[in-house]
C-alpha cells in the first residue's frame, strides 16, 4: 500500500469514463486496504456517493467513507441511508457507522431496526449488540418490544444483556426470565436458537442453555446451545 497507489484508486473511482469493472476494483481497494488515510478526500467521496448509480460501487464506497471517522462523513452516510433503495448498501452504511460516536448515529440505527428489509433490520440489531453503550441498554429492551421484525428481537435482547451494567442484578433477573419465556413460547427453532444466544451473553444462564438445548429436537438449537 502506498500513498500514490491510494491516489490512483481515488482517481479511478472518481472518473466515470473508466470501465465499471475498473472503478469497482478501485472502490474495493478503498474499502479493504488497511492503514490508508482517506481523511483529505471526505468531500470528494461524499459527492461521489450521491452521484454514483452503481450499487455495486456504492457498497464498498460507504465503508471507505466510514474509515475517515469524520463528522461530515457520518452526515453524508446518514443522508444516503435515508434515500438509499438497495438493501446491501444500507447494510454497509450501518456497518460503516460503527466508526463514529454512538450519539451521532443513534437515530439512523433506530430507523434501520424498523426497516422493512430484514437484512437491514438485522444489521441494525447487530450494531446495537456489537457497538452499543450501557446507557442505551434500557432502550434496546424497549425496542425489543416495539414494532420491529420478530427475527431481530433476540439480537436486541442480546444487546441488553451485553450492555446492561452489572449493578442491575435484579433487573437482569427479570430480563433473563423474559428471554426464557420467549424461548418457550415460540416453536420456531431459529428463534429459539437466537434466544439461547441472547441468554449466553450472561454466563450464569449456562444451565438453562444446556438443559433446553442439548436434547432439543432441532439441530440448529442443539448446535447453538453447544
Task: Describe this structure as you would to a colleague.
The radius of gyration is 20 Å and the shape is elongated. Helix 11 packs antiparallel against helix 12. The termini are far apart. The chain contains 14 helices and no strands. It has 226 residues and is mainly alpha-helical. The mean pLDDT is 96.
Tell me the structural class.
Answer: mainly alpha
- Beta-strand percentage? under 5%
Mean pLDDT: 96
Number of strands: 0
Q: Helix coverage percent of residues?
A: 55-70%
Instruction: Please state the oligomeric state of the protein chains shown.
Output: single chain
Short summary of the structure?
With 226 residues, the chain is mostly helical. The protein has helices at 3-14, 20-32, 42-51, 55-66, 71-83, 87-96, 102-113, 118-131, 137-144, 153-163, 169-185, 189-199, 206-213, 219-225. It is elongated.
Keywords:
226 residues; 70% helix; 14 helices
Secondary-structure map:
Layout (H helix, E strand, L loop, with lengths): L2 H12 L5 H13 L9 H10 L3 H12 L4 H13 L3 H10 L5 H12 L4 H14 L5 H8 L8 H11 L5 H17 L3 H11 L6 H8 L5 H7 L1
Helix pairs in contact: 1-2, 2-4, 3-4, 3-5, 4-6, 5-6, 6-8, 7-8, 8-10, 9-10, 10-11, 10-12, 11-12, 12-14, 13-14
Amino acid at each position: 500500500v502506498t500513498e500514490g497507489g491510494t491516489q490512483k484508486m481515488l482517481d479511478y473511482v472518481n472518473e466515470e469514463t473508466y470501465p465499471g469493472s475498473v472503478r469497482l476494483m478501485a472502490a474495493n481497494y478503498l474499502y479493504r486496504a488497511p492503514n490508508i488515510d482517506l481523511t483529505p478526500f471526505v468531500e470528494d467521496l461524499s459527492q461521489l456517493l450521491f452521484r454514483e448509480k452503481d450499487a455495486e460501487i456504492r457498497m464498498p464506497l460507504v465503508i471507505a467513507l466510514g474509515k475517515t471517522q469524520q463528522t461530515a462523513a457520518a452526515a453524508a452516510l446518514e443522508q444516503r441511508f435515508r434515500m438509499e433503495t438497495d438493501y446491501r448498501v444500507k447494510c454497509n452504511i450501518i456497518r460503516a457507522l460503527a466508526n463514529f460516536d454512538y450519539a451521532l448515529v443513534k437515530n439512523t440505527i433506530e430507523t434501520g431496526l424498523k426497516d422493512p428489509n430484514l437484512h437491514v433490520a438485522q444489521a441494525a440489531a447487530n450494531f446495537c449488540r456489537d457497538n452499543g453503550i450501557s446507557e442505551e441498554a434500557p432502550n434496546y429492551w424497549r425496542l425489543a418490544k416495539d414494532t420491529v421484525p420478530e427475527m431481530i428481537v433476540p439480537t436486541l435482547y442480546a444487546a441488553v444483556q451485553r450492555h446492561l451494567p452489572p449493578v442491575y442484578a435484579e433487573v437482569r433477573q427479570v430480563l433473563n426470565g423474559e428471554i426464557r419465556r420467549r424461548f418457550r413460547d415460540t416453536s420456531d427453532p431459529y428463534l429459539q436458537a437466537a434466544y439461547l444466544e441472547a441468554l449466553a451473553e450472561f454466563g450464569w444462564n449456562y444451565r438453562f442453555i444446556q438443559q433446553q438445548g442439548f436434547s432439543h429436537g432441532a439441530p440448529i438449537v442443539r448446535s447453538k446451545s453447544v
